[in-house]
Description:
Layout: E1 3-11, H1 14-25, E2 29-32, E3 36-39, E4 43-47, H2 48-55, E5 70-75, H3 79-88, E6 93-99, E7 105-110, E8 116-120, H4 123-132, H5 137-144, H6 148-155
Parallel strand pairs: 1-4, 5-8
Antiparallel strand pairs: 1-5, 2-3, 3-4, 6-7, 7-8
Amino acid sequence: MIRYQSVVLLCSDIAISKQFYQDLFQLEIELDIGGLVTFVGGISLWEKKDALYLLYPGSDTITNPEKPAQELYFETDEIVEFSTILQERKVPLLHQIQVTPWNQRTIRFFDPDGNLIEVGESMEHVVKNLGKEGLPPEKIAEKTWMPLEYIKMILQ
């Protein structure tokens, strides 16, 4: 099952963008982990320099205006099965399944117009799997960059 999660906007200055969306639209922050902010309702902001470093490692993408400055984000806990569907349909990939620095498996690809789409495991799924491996909540928080309170809530 694939679930739409959010539009992710890549921002030059996360603090300025966060304040802009909060002030103008009175958006409530769902999660703020510094370089990534998710608002209730499906808009996320990601620090551009961090995002592009992970999306296009080894290339000079920060100065290349042809690279997408946003992505659509979906979640599935059946990421391997979804990857197979992409391969069967010959969808052009940015990358195969990767494990992010925060331990989430993701795959990124392009739609017919070149728009970037990411499908990743839900962080709830990631947290539960790390818990099944026997990691304590504090270690899971460290590995996922998620707040300890969130980890404890998921593991209950």
